[in-house]
């Protein structure tokens, strides 16, 4: 039994009972184990490695921690840890960036360790702390680029920011950049996904999924400044709205969402950025050399560089590209995953996995052993204010693993 079960007593009874039902992950119901994505971790709800029982009880009593309200939206791997983003979509989220150990964590309801620590997470009166992290990326130098940018509600009054943490130095903060209001709104902004381009001291490309001002943000680490691209391709597509996942119709406006960066071209060194609105079937691309040219962006001529790659089999949330040019894309309405190699015609794109237990395929992460991980998270339930969340026996979050033999685009 996990020692925390004894330490925290009956308040953790649900966690303890579930953990001890089996020492191995539960099978994916109704799915043969021959499926290429196998389940690795699963949670009924997210709980944390509290410093003490009294700290836990205080958070519960004051509703600073409401277990059913904590959602997981992004995952990334580094040195046998899986890091996760936990934005304040609803109230009662005491930790917004955490991690679990892939070597020691149980497979069912593993407790999440706040990262870099409790003092760095969700201090409402301290805007230097992490407030509402939607996603992150970890570059090849072990620097985590943290996207503290979920501002689609009023759960924090702190401005959206990009924070760089050095994972080689216990998560020491090495940079914090606050986005100007004309780039991302403090109230209503929704910085959704991020990829990192390690050329010229580092660029980040970030999607703003807000209904107020959707667009693609470019951040230059060398200049420590950002600029924003706005185009009709980043808005919803009317014929792709109101899709159903898990018996719940997703009715929200859903502009620019998923983003993926290609490896460098072997001869030219060029990179391509791919993106898609959530409520959209089309996949688009643009060369990164265009994105880095701020004067060209100001002129508006950059829009001529946008290419329509093709129509996917369904709407997509997360995208990711490996070091061989394979683009993997989620397909929430199909409970599936698609794959296409960017060096081939888009007509070769295919659905490689479909599984009704994958309720809202959301985010990806590569490790250094050739594995691709997938997060499914029921996020449509958290985003819909009409849905009353309750603690039940339902598994809300799952992490699947699929061996590809490849690594991240950053490698």
Notable characteristics:
411 residues, single chain, 26 strands, 4-stranded antiparallel sheet
Q: Describe it for me?
A:
There is one protein chain. The protein has 411 residues and is mainly β. Helices cover 9% and strands 34% of the residues. It is built from six helices and 26 strands. Strands 1-26-25-24 form a four-stranded antiparallel beta sheet, with no helix packed on it. Strand 10 (191-197) and strand 11 form a beta hairpin. The longest helix has 9 residues, at 53-61.
List the helices and strands and how they pair.
Blueprint (H helix, E strand, L loop, with lengths): L2 H6 L4 H7 L18 E6 L9 H9 L12 E5 L2 E5 L11 E5 L11 E2 L20 E4 L4 E6 L12 E6 L5 E7 L12 E7 L5 E6 L6 E6 L4 E5 L13 E3 L2 E3 L5 E6 L10 E6 L4 E6 H4 L2 H6 L7 E5 L7 E3 L4 E6 L4 E6 L8 E5 L6 E6 L4 E6 L2 H5 L13 E7 L8
Antiparallel strand pairs: 1-26, 2-3, 3-4, 4-5, 6-7, 7-8, 8-9, 10-11, 11-12, 12-13, 14-15, 16-17, 17-18, 18-19, 20-21, 21-22, 22-23, 24-25, 25-26
């Amino acid at each position: 039994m996990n020692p925390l079960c004894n330490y925290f007593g009956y308040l953790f009874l649900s966690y303890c009972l579930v953990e001890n039902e089996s020492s191995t992950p539960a099978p994916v119901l109704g799915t043969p184990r021959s499926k290429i994505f196998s389940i690795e971790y699963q949670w009924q709800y997210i709980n944390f490695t509290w410093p003490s029982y009294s700290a836990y009880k205080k958070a519960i009593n004051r509703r600073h921690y409401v277990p059913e309200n904590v959602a997981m939206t992004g995952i990334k791997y580094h040195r046998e840890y899986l890091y996760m983003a936990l934005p304040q979509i609803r109230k009662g989220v005491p930790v917004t960036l955490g991690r679990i150990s892939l070597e020691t964590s149980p497979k069912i309801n593993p407790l999440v360790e706040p990262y870099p620590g409790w003092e760095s997470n969700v201090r409402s009166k301290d805007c230097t702390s992490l407030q509402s992290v939607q996603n992150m990326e970890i570059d090849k130098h072990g620097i985590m680029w943290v996207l503290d940018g979920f501002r689609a509600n009023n759960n924090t009054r702190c401005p959206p920011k990009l924070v760089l943490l050095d994972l080689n130095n216990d998560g020491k903060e090495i940079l914090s950049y606050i986005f100007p209001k004309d780039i991302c709104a403090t109230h209503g902004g929704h910085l959704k996904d991020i990829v990192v381009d390690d050329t010229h001291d580092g660029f980040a490309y970030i999607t703003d999924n807000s209904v107020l001002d959707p667009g693609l943000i470019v951040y230059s680490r060398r200049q420590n400044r950002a600029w924003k691209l706005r185009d009709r391709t980043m808005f919803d597509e009317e014929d792709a709205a109101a899709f159903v996942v898990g018996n719940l119709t997703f009715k929200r406006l859903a502009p620019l969402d998923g983003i993926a960066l290609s490896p460098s071209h072997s001869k030219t060194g060029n990179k391509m950025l791919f993106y898609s609105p959530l409520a959209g079937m089309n996949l688009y691309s643009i060369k990164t050399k265009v994105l880095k040219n701020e004067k060209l962006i100001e002129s508006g001529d950059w829009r001529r560089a946008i290419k329509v790659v093709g129509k996917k089999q369904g709407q997509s949330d997360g995208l990711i590209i490996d070091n061989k040019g394979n683009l993997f894309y989620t397909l929430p309405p199909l409970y599936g995953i698609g794959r296409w190699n960017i060096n081939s015609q888009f007509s070769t794109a295919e659905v490689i996995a479909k599984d009704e237990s994958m309720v809202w395929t959301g985010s990806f992460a590569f490790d250094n052993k050739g594995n691709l991980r997938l997060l499914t998270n029921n996020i449509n339930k958290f985003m819909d204010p009409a849905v009353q969340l309750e603690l039940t026996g339902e598994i809300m979050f799952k992490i699947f693993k699929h061996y590809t033999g490849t690594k991240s685009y950053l490698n």
